[in-house]
Every structure is written in structure tokens, then in C-alpha cells.
Design a protein that fits this description.
Keywords: Signal, Transport. The chain has 340 residues and is an alpha/beta fold. The chain contains 15 helices and 14 strands. Strands 10-9-11-8-12 form a five-stranded mixed beta sheet, with helices on both faces. A three-stranded parallel beta sheet has the order 4-1-5. Strands 2-3 form a two-stranded antiparallel ribbon.
Length: 340
């Protein structure tokens, strides 16, 4: 037995334990397969929703395409795997998907107990409530005794329970996995409110038959930073996902867009732009990707600002202002680590 313990300790020290054996394999596996398996929501406007032709549209869907473009130079080399909140982590743990890009709040316990790793923030949000306008409710304390539609296995379920308990109020939860089912229940009168993140409330309301009949209360009760999730102990793959998101933010900071990326790659003398777009191959070499990895991602989906405005911004049916998701130079929280 002492020999077996010694052998096991030696294997772990040399990086030959089971966790280390998996490290670094995802990038090679995805490249060999030739397709990225990307986990997305089963369908929320502005994030991931198939259109009438079955093409997935939305900010999360385009982030999947950005990763595919960085890997293969082709944003079409992605397989979208629709997942409910309950299914999402199991699908990633089991290897059914390579990365989860699905309105997932980055929390400490998720980052430390699931065998997964929260990568980086791509959207800042907060928990809120949507109620019927004719209920006359202007603040959450007026929701005492209401039935609230929630999705199980989400931070929103916990936030709602915590807030009502702390304020001595009662509510009855109606738990359904699919947020679309919650939206239908609210419209049909089976629940009095929906509790989830504010961006998702706006996305759901944009699809209602009579959106004006519903009000999103202005109060926020939590920090809900969204971001991609990968399996733990694969730092190489973690780096690819983190820096692809960062590249889109850096592109907006530098004024690089889907329209001018190719020209700037050829002509810019700005060293930051040259590194980002691959005229200087340093960043691609660091990730074991083509020098044009970031340029390909930006050309495919645009910079971060283009993504937000196209899918969630004021000119869309969802109609959100950027708020905390503005660049740091404009009073927001979006900030790319130096890419050098």
C-alpha cells in the first residue's frame, strides 16, 4: 500500500494523474474534428435564437462564431448545442460541448466546485423582475404573495428566495426549465412575474404579442456577470476562449471593425493594431493559432460594440442601452487586458 501511495504521488508530481492527462487536449481535439461544439441557450432573442431559416442569431451565437473563426478562419465551422439551465454544466462536464456560451453568471462556487472554469466577462447584468402593467406594481415590495416564474438551477432562483426572505415577504415559485415557458406562463396569467436577469427580461418581452402590457421594474438585486465556461485543467483552451473575447473588446478600443480589419492589417503602423490583427505574429504564436486569428474573428462578427448594438442595442427590438457594458473609457466596465 505504501508503494502504491508513493507511485500515485509520483504520478501526480510528474503531471500524469487523471486531471493532468486531460490538460491541453481540447484545442487539439477541436482542430482535429474541424468543428467547434458550442453550448447555447435553447432560445432567447438577442442571445441565441434560431431564425425562420434555422440559423442561430444573437450575441452568444456570434461569440461562438468568433471562436470558430479564430480557430479555423471560418465562422461557419460551429455546431450549436441548445441547452437549458439544468443541462448546461453537465453537457460541458461530459464533453458534449467544448465551450459553454450561454447567459451563465460567473460565481465562486461554480468556478471552484464543478470541475469547470469561468473564463472572462462578456456582459454585465443584474437580477430584476417583470410584472403585468395592470398589477400597478412599481417596486418589488409590492410583489408580496405573487407567483413568480423562475428557471431552476439558476442564480435567479436563489437571488429571488434570498431577497423575499430578507424582506419578510412571501412568494410562490413556478419553476420551469425553459425561459420561453415562463414567458408563456406570464402572458397566460399562470404567474404574476418573471424573475431573471434584466437583459433576458427585455429579450423575452420583445417577443411578446403585447409587450406594452408588461413592465420591467427598474431595481436590480444582484451582480450577474455573464461569460464563457470551459472544463478545468485545460489552460491552453481556456486561453483561446479568454483572449478571443478580449480581442473583440480590444478591437473596439482601437477602432478596428468588421469593415476595416483587413485593410488595417495590411496598412496600420500602430503596434497594438499590428499585434492584434496578426501583422506581427506574436499573439497567434502564443495561442498556437494562425497569426490572423483575431482578425478572422473580428471580420466574422465585428468588435464588441458592433456585437452589442446589433443584437441588444437601442435600435433593436430589445432596445437596451449599453450601461455597464460601455468601454472603460466611456464610463463602463469593458476593458481588455493588454494584448502584448
Amino acid at each position: 500500500m505504501s508503494f502504491l501511495r508513493w507511485l500515485g504521488a509520483g504520478l501526480l508530481a510528474m503531471g500524469l494523474g487523471t486531471g493532468a492527462a486531460q490538460a491541453g487536449q481540447t484545442l487539439d481535439t477541436v482542430k482535429a474534428r474541424g468543428t467547434l461544439n458550442c453550448g447555447v441557450n435553447v432560445g432567447v432573442a438577442g442571445f441565441s435564437l434560431p431564425d425562420s431559416q434555422g440559423v442561430w442569431r444573437g450575441m452568444d451565437a456570434d461569440l461562438c462564431r468568433a471562436v470558430a473563426a479564430a480557430l479555423f478562419g471560418d465562422p461557419g465551422k460551429v455546431r450549436f448545442v441548445p441547452l437549458t439551465a439544468v443541462q448546461r454544466f453537465t453537457a460541458l462536464q461530459s464533453g458534449e460541448i467544448d465551450v459553454l456560451i450561454r447567459q451563465t453568471t460567473l460565481t465562486m462556487t461554480r468556478d471552484t466546485t464543478l470541475g469547470l472554469r469561468m473564463v472572462t466577462v462578456n456582459l454585465y447584468d443584474g437580477h430584476g423582475f417583470m410584472v403585468r402593467r395592470d398589477a400597478g406594481v412599481t417596486e418589488p415590495k409590492g410583489m408580496d404573495g405573487m407567483t413568480i416564474c423562475l428557471s431552476p438551477g439558476t442564480t435567479n432562483e436563489l437571488v429571488t428566495a434570498d431577497w423575499f426572505r430578507a424582506n419578510g415577504l412571501r412568494f410562490t415559485p413556478l419553476l420551469q426549465e425553459r425561459m420561453q415557458d415562463n414567458a408563456q406562463a406570464l402572458q397566460a396569467g399562470r404567474c404574476d412575474a418573471i424573475g431573471t436577469d434584466a437583459t433576458q427580461l427585455a429579450a423575452l418581452r420583445s417577443q411578446f404579442t403585447r409587450p406594452g402590457d408588461f413592465v420591467i421594474l427598474p431595481q436590480r438585486f444582484s451582480k450577474e456577470p455573464y461569460g464563457p465556461v470551459v472544463r478545468r485543467d485545460d489552460q491552453e483552451w481556456f486561453d483561446v476562449i479568454r483572449w478571443t473575447v478580449s480581442a473583440l473588446i480590444q478591437a473596439e478600443e482601437l477602432g478596428v471593425t468588421s469593415a476595416n480589419a483587413e485593410e488595417l492589417r495590411r496598412t496600420s503602423q500602430n503596434p497594438d493594431i499590428r499585434r492584434l490583427l496578426g501583422a506581427d505574429p506574436l499573439l497567434g504564436q502564443a495561442l498556437k493559432l494562425d497569426p490572423a486569428w483575431a482578425s478572422n474573428a473580428i471580420r466574422a462578427v465585428g468588435n464588441y460594440g458592433e456585437l452589442f448594438e446589433r443584437h441588444l442595442g437601442p435600435k433593436t427590438a430589445i432596445g437596451l442601452e449599453r450601461g455597464l457594458n460601455r468601454l472603460w473609457t466611456e464610463g463602463g466596465l469593458m476593458y481588455s487586458w493588454p494584448m502584448r
